[in-house]
DUF2179 domain-containing protein
Amino acid sequence: MKIKLKEYFSITIGFIILAIAIKFFLAPNKIAAGGITGIAIIINNFIPKLSVGILMFFMNVILFIIGFIVIGGKFGAKTLYAALGLSGLITLLDKFIPSNVAVTNDLLLATIFGTLISGIGMGLVFNQNSSTGGTDIIAKIISKFFHFDIGKSLLIVDLIVTIAAGISFTPELGMYGLLAVILNGFMIDMVIEGLNSCKAVVVMSSKNESINRYIIEELDRGCTIFEGRGAYSGNSISVLYTVLDRKQFIKLKNYIKEIDNRAFISVNEAHEVLGEGFKDIIEE
């Protein structure tokens, strides 16, 4: 139950951040940064009575059904929540705040900051094996079956929308939309990698037995022991290998410093870790 609440809390924060980016940066400046949002912005330009939020809701219904069938009910439930939450929040904002209200009317600033903010929001949502709906669902399907990064998959899908924006508005706005799509793809991948990254740690110490017990008993993590031999000394030595999150690594480093300040520690970034104690392999 706690895990589910954490997942939906993260999704909620994600679509709130995304709604802010759309409402105050992208939509008022007519920057159609791909996806259903971009399509809604284009249609809203020709039919102002239909708000961006309402357009997103109805277009999402069709793609949601596709995602539910292809990817599965678990993904569909989270996506339904995110999609309805996002479109509902934007619709609510449209009722109380005029559509032309923007943090900045400078197209370059609106593109950069709107994309960075939306990328953070979408990254939070995607990281929970969900989507904000729309063409995000198509990107998730491409990622699932062709093993592309989600951001790159989204980039491919959204290029078509930016071309339509260039035709509907001006070539300049189309180019800003294209810039937003490119930045968005990279930003999403950076956020996901940052949220899932861990430390892969190798330890060689005369106190390996104590360190091994500390990792298992205090940090509640697994540890693998390799038997090695020093190339110079020829002495046998045990090598510990474990994967920890950032907080756990700091605790381990401080512990090793206390008991053996001559220990050898090698640390590498693990951008994604799957399996017991980490992200569920099945969700992939």
Remarks:
- Residues 2-195 form one domain.
- Residues 171-196 form the longest helix (26 residues).
